[in-house]
Amino acid sequence: MNFQWLWHASLACFIVAALTGFLYRLGMLGWVPGDLSLGNIRHAHSHLMFFGWAVPFPLYILLNRISSRTAPNNRWVRLMYYAIAAELAFGILAYLFFLFYGYRPVEIGSIALPLSVILSGLVMICWYIYLWGYLYIRSTLHNTSWQAWYDGALIMLVVSSLGAWGIAVLQAVNPTAHLLMKSLTHFFLATFTEGWVILAILTVLLTKLAINRKHWLISEHFSLGCIAIGAPLTFPYGISESLLSPTLLIVARLGGLLTATGLLLVIYAIVSSGMKKNSIWIWPLSLLGIKAGVQIIASVIPSSFWLSDYALRLFYLHLLLLGGFTLTMIGWLYIRSTVSQRYFNGVVLSVFAVLFSLLLPSHIWPAAWSGLWIVYALAIAAILPIITISIMWLKISGSRVDKDKN
Question: What is the reported pTM?
Answer without folding.
Answer: 0.93
